[in-house]
Amino acid sequence: MIDNHKTFGRCTARLLIAGLLAAAAGTPALANDSTAALSAGGLIMVPNLDIEMASEDLFISEQEVRVRYVFRNTAKQDQTVLVAFPMPDITIRESLNITIPNDASDNFLDFKTTVDGKPVQTQLEQRALALEIDRTAMLRDLKIPLAPYLKQTQAALDALPQDKWKEFEALGLGMVDEYEAGKGPERHLAPQWTLKSTYYWSQTFPAGKALVVEHKYRPSVGMSAGTLIGLKLKDNEYAAEEQRQQMDQFCVDQAFLNGVSKASKASKNSGEVPFSDARIHYILQTGGNWSGGTIRDFKLTVDKGASENLVSFCGKDVKKISPTQFQMTAKDFYPARNLGILILKPYPKQ
């Protein structure tokens, strides 16, 4: 079993990972079996030079993300600021499937927050943007839900008169989708806007004191029936570029590739990479928004779920603390890039 972790680099992180592309000729097409992950992360606030992030303790698995912050107000007076947790943007595209942990709720990641152990009453702001123009009021006037992934939203769009269909297309709000799914020809107005959601509240930070803020949510995990990692893609430039991006994003190194290669050679199906993959993204760079721009004490724990799984992510001086968990700690940590975690899962033995 090979586990990989490398130093955080100072490059711009990609916030969304696309589904797997069709691989080279002779290998299976993977795109239709893929879902993409939504990137979520930490808290942001109105800039304040007096409030520092003393520590951040971050735990990430496929089932849960937990974060425990300790903030300290270094001023001589209390500071009351707006604190927000931005949910991942959601845009429905015909060619892209995304995983939504709780699609029956506006709180689609089941986000919860406590301050010094007490639940916080947050407010929710949601907006619908098409071509970077806010169309929230228009959708609400037409009684169309803002969440583009809901069945009720599709039903409301399909019920609009044809002149509205044309208007929605012209504004970039919708696209006419025609297909055959076993029930005869179907025609729908597919939503094309982007949903932006933010939970926020006003928080008072006592002068000269520490304040513990904790939140947890269910991550959106991108999944594929196969993986690009380890495939030979010399004849497929498009897929090879996606593979290179994934290797950079998850800090895949030669040791990790050797582990994949060893499993592939042992597979009954010659040339097959016998893994599915799971991809988790966390927006880490917001930790640099607090006083000083660094996190004084930072701890990251990643749980890969099962001992036979392979995991790769970017980190420094990572230690294995259990059969499935890996941990890194750092002082005065500067989050130069966002975090991507790749978990490869062996196919069930037959």
TrEMBL record:
Say yes or no: keyword Signal present: yes
Q: What is the lineage of its organism?
A: Bacteria, Pseudomonadati, Pseudomonadota, Alphaproteobacteria, Hyphomicrobiales
Kindly name one Pfam family recorded for this protein: DUF4424
* Protein name, per record: DUF4424 domain-containing protein
Recorded source organism is Azorhizobium caulinodans (strain ATCC 43989 / DSM 5975 / JCM 20966 / LMG 6465 / NBRC 14845 / NCIMB 13405 / ORS 571)
Sorted keywords for this record are: Signal
Residue ranges of the DUF4424 domain?
31-342
Q: Which residues form the signal peptide?
A: 1-31
